[in-house]
Amino acid sequence: MLKSRRNEMLVAAVLVAPFVFIYGWMFVYPTLQMVQLSFTNAPLIGPGKWIGLDNYKRLFGDRVFGTAVWNTTYFVLLTVIPGTAVALGIALMVSRLNGWFQSLILSAFFLPFVLPITVVYLIWDWLLNLQFGIAQYIIGPIMGKPMNVWRTIPWFMPGVAIITIWWTNGFSILLFLAGLRNIPKELYEAAALDGATRWQVFTRITWPLIWPVTVLCLTIQLILQLKIFDQVYLFSLGGRTAATMVMVQYIFEQAFQKNSGGYAATVAVALFVIVIAFSVFQYQVLRIRGAR
Amino acid sequence: MTAMADTSLTSVERKRSRPLNIGAILLGALTVICAAIWFFPVFWALSTSLKTDDEAVRRGIGLLPEAPTLDGYLYVIRNSDLPFWYLNSTITSVAVTVIAVFMAACAGYAISQLRFPGRTLLWWTILASFMVPVQALIVNHFIIMASVKLLNTHLGIILPMLITPVTVIVYKQFFDSLPREFREAAVMDGANEFQLLFRVFLPMNWGITTALAIITFIGAWNSFLWPFLAAQNEKMMTVTVGITAVQDTFGVAYARLMAGAVLAGLPVALAYIIFQRRVTQAITLSAGIKG
Predict the structure, then answer these.
(1) Does B257 contact A126 at a Cβ distance shorter than 8 Å?
(2) What is the ipTM of this complex?
(3) Cross-referenced Pfam families, in alphabetical order (chain B) (predicted)?
(4) Which chain A positions have a beta carbon within 8 Å of B289's beta carbon?
(5) A124 and A163 in contact (C-beta within 8 Å)?
(6) Cα–Cα distance between A224 and A111 in angstroms, integer?
(7) Do B240 and A175 touch (CB under 8 A)?
(8) Three-state DSSP class for residue A40
(9) Domains and CATH numbers, chain A
(10) What is the pLDDT of residues B27-71, one digit of tens each?
(11) What's domain B76-287's architecture?
């Protein structure tokens, strides 16, 4: 008995060894190092002096950091709820279809999700090109003249948000479709027998039963969009990045363009705290949902 | 009896819904129009990539190329480091997929089925890494990789991308869901733990492993931020990073740019089209709902 117990532990040690090695080296160690670095004035590469809380004091008075937090929040507001609403609408439409036709239509909606962000960027940069972009045929008449979306600050975030919804919505659509499929058919049949209208069916059956999936989509999107970087970075290339800065981009800029590793780590710690706070909130929401 | 009840029900339903058929047709049409609009950017990129650079910037809307040509593709392949990028992307994505999935299966199995000290701590580490934004660690990943001289190497690109906690969580939940009798029976037959994992448990549902592998591959191929930082040398870039790095060298040549974009997206788009069902499964599994 004792031998088999020891054997089990040995097997476990072998099985988790690669995992412990990688996560220790690539997750635990960098996390601790990040916190330590945030108390120093180190450059990106090389040692720095311990400066206590100076970086954190600087953070609270930093206007660009304020802009980055605001832009990130604004971006979250523009994507999370609108994106989830659009995904639900599309899922409702797609769920009415059957067989190969459904797969075809679903593929059209889902395909953007599997594309690399740089491909998404190139496609939309071309569509919205000031001189030759096909989208200017729509923008021109509405705005009066062709518009460079990425150099017009008020349009930058909404523009990136629309493209992000286009890019990432496939994920939520799939979750909603799975949720819709789990609603018992009998409920709809009974409603049809009772002569319920489409709207009644939606508000009385579909919406209450799909609500848990809606909460799931909202929280997943929230955590995801807080970490926005790629799109904003790519579309702001060559522009006034200080005005359209988001949090991860500020880490990137401080570390790799301003060569201040210590302060970049401080911004990273701030992002860490914010995302973890929301994640714990998400975890609680999901637990409440699971308990019900 | 139930079958009869079913038919009568559907005929009732059919009669009732007849007046609504026009509504159904309109909804169907609306769905198709929305799908067409949604897909249009991808279609437009494909169409542009088959035009000549002159035709691409001609005024007016030419939905299809007048004389489809592969010149844009040939130009990109011959005049950029695209073949290298393809090689780099393939090496790093395949390595990330194989290592991350293998590591996750082993760890998920151990945490689910074995009792050992540190098990709870390990599980909490996984949940923590699931919550934490990996993007915040870029600075320290860079410092670590610089200190071991792994910047601009495949290994340097691969290592930080191996943090994929969702795969471990999905595997653990899968192993948790298996009946204990399987394990007991196999142990009775004298199977050891490794045989149990690789000969009994994993083969019971290759679907999960395939699904996780495909989604990990797509994720690795599409990664932008870390490969962008880790590979400064143009020959070491991945496709995802490379196609924007050469944007300026191509100049005002949108057919070429779109050809580059199509080539970069092609492998993942094909992976999705071929393994559509597995991709769907992986996504619903990772979100923790039944598909």
Answers:
(1) yes
(2) 0.90
(3) BPD_transp_1
(4) 175, 178-179, 182, 213, 216
(5) yes
(6) 19
(7) no
(8) strand
(9) 47-291 (1.10.3720.10)
(10) 889 999 999 999 999 999 999 999 988 888 887 788 888 889 998
(11) Orthogonal Bundle (1.10)
